[in-house]
Design goal:
two-stranded antiparallel ribbon, 2 strands, alpha+beta
Length: 68
């Protein structure tokens, strides 16, 4: 009985793989053409501490835009 269930499971998995719409290779080939970056933003935070108490804090926001 266990062998029959295992066989059915493997058969079902095989059929699923055969009828899958996209493969990993096709996804990877199409990925670069779908990526468009117009702007990029980052935020950095620095804290100066003494004995666990924050003495000073610096926040830096940086943005870049794609040139046309």
């Amino acid at each position: 009985m266990k062998k029959l269930l295992m066989l059915c499971f493997l058969l079902l998995c095989s059929i699923t793989v055969l009828f899958a719409e996209e493969t990993a290779e096709s996804i990877m080939k199409g990925a670069p053409s779908k990526i468009t970056i117009e702007t990029i933003g980052t935020r950095a935070k620095m804290e100066i501490q003494r004995n666990g108490t924050t003495m000073a804090e610096l926040l830096v926001d940086q943005y870049s835009a794609k040139r046309k």
